[in-house]
Root phototropism protein 2 isoform X2 (Prunus mume), 584 residues
Amino acid sequence: MASSVKGNSRLSIAMERTGQWIFSQEIPSDVMVEVGEANFSLHKFMLVAKSNHIRKLVLESTEPDLTRINLSDIPGGPETFEKAAKFCYGVNFEITVQNVAALRCAAEYLEMTDKYCDNNLTGRTEDFLTQVALSSLSGAIVVLKSCEELLPIAEDLKIVHRCVDVATSKASIEASFPSRTPTNWWTEELAILDVEFFGRFITAMKLRGAKSLIVASAIITYAEKWLRDLVRDHSGTGANSAVSNDSALRIRQRELLEAIVSLLPSEKAALPINFLCCLLRSATFVKASSACKTELEKRISVILEHVTVDDLLVLSFTYDGERLFDLESVRKIISGFVEKEQSVAVFNAGDFRAVCSAAMVRVGKTVDAYLGEIATCVDLSISKFNGIANLVPKGARKVDDDLYRAVDIYLKAHPNLDEIEREKVCSVMDALKLSYEARVHASQNKRLPVQIVLHALYYDQLKLRSGVDENEMMQDAVTTRSQVQQDVSLARENESLRTELLRMKMYISDLQKSGPAAKGSLGAATTSSGKGGGGPRKGTFFSSVSKKLGKLNPFKQGSKDDTSNIMDEGVDITKPRRRRFSIS
């Protein structure tokens, strides 16, 4: 672009340059054409011969001799007008894929059509577009790129539509039958486009029925080029956190990221999960819209079984890796995956709590390993740690060794926790589902609460008492827990019987102290109950106690002649026995 020169002479650089190719320098110029800051000293008769637009300006001018024409709104600016002026003067210049769109738009603006003059600039540029520029994928992309500065006239002339149509057609063929290496070379060339034209290209590819993997390949290349600092740079040097969220850079990154997410193919599994995780972290970093983040979280949760610990760490830490960044997205992703697995289990008429899928088991292992990595962060609260750990169903963990490791790391990184807080941390794991090595470690771990240590020791005692192999004991964790409950129930029942026996002894002692009157009343009650004929025998305190003691009688099955068969018919109840203090 030519710029004005300060000094006595107001002659522009454009005038000096045009003076080199104007062949009629002997004839003084009679018109000054202004294009922005550039001025061109030309001849009206040369311009009017090719341009109907300039002819109209001259004829419709109110001035008797028009000496200045302003064409600042010509598409392509001073450089394009200079080439159009050369064409009017018959000076040769090169039409390329880079300037053909601008020349075509300028020719339309200047009305340099074949109706006004044969073989004019409009026809020349149209021939080049059809025969050269739009004959290849690379040419169509370059022309489409040049149209970004030529709107809306390039749109009105259908140049954009033609470029998109040719580019998508040839890209589809190239993706199916590569003509060069690397096979995705065309995605690199496509990445030069602005996001608006790139979006039109992707939309056209989808309408043509292109495979999701092809569309995804183009999107990945584009995102890595335009969001390189956020997507590909994991060292933190590219994403400067000191930049304000309201800065032009952050606004541009936010708009670009949201546009890219809106272009993702409908097939959820078309994009690799590590790329989606990078996009989600970028969306959180630039404070993208909630709809953008939710879309990425749903896509990741669908294919979470392929996630690695590093992928989850990408979501969790800042670019410098020094502090936790966003655990809420991780929680939503894991929760979404678990809900999906539960719905599948219900649809298949299965019990999700009893049997978990292989995908759920893999995710459980990954989550436990992930917890072990973030447990070292001092700003990780117990609620957040437990919240993520409890998202994984209990049935997804055959053993809790990995979870125990994460708990131990958390306790070690947070030494100031009290007993109650440590119990809360340990509540996420089951001590009965630890392996032998883990139980040995837990029994000697001073960081664990006493309750967890006792559980581990109790399990080992049961194993030693039963003499069952370790592999079989791992399968009997639920049975062991049930046995513990039964032991507690029996202990309570024994305590109840012991209390009843104590009450009976106290009652007998009271009878012995009360004298013969109490014994007489007791005998009368016994006699009356014996003469009751066919009526049911009313239960007494002794009968209820004897029933409970009978449960503890070791000879109940072996001897029929116990005291319960002794009849009281031969006892004379009218005369008191000499041993007044005996009730036997």
User: Anything to note?
Assistant: The longest strand covers residues 31-35.
